[in-house]
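Sequence, please.
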């Protein structure tokens, strides 16, 4: 790991590709009071919409999202940012920046004991 190098810009660009925000969109709808089953169905329709048109979630406009469901508010677009989704995942072992920093610190302590 000492020689590992990370291209942060490339990683950030890759995080915003594909339809990886499906969980974030489902969570968003559930937090707005939509039952999970319905939220899952709405997001499934959005996935199909994107696949058929060669789009990604981040390419969608608010009007496109609302055409699938009026449950989407203006606050949905920032929720699609990869960083927003990561920040919400705060349980132990999750991918939030704070959780990752804790895991790195833990790994360093373990490696120091074994050295």
């Amino acid at each position: 790991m000492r020689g590992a190098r990370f291209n942060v810009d490339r990683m950030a660009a890759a995080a915003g590709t594909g339809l990886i925000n499906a969980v974030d969109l489902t969570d968003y709808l559930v937090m707005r009071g939509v039952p999970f089953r319905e939220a899952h169905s709405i997001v499934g329709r959005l996935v199909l919409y994107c696949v058929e048109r060669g789009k990604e979630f981040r390419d969608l406009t608010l009007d496109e999202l609302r055409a699938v469901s009026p449950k989407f508010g203006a606050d949905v677009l920032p929720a699609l940012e990869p960083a927003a989704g990561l920040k919400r995942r705060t349980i132990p072992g999750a991918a939030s920046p704070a959780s990752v920093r804790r895991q790195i610190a833990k790994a360093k302590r373990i490696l120091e004991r074994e050295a």
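The two ends are 14 Å apart (CA to CA).
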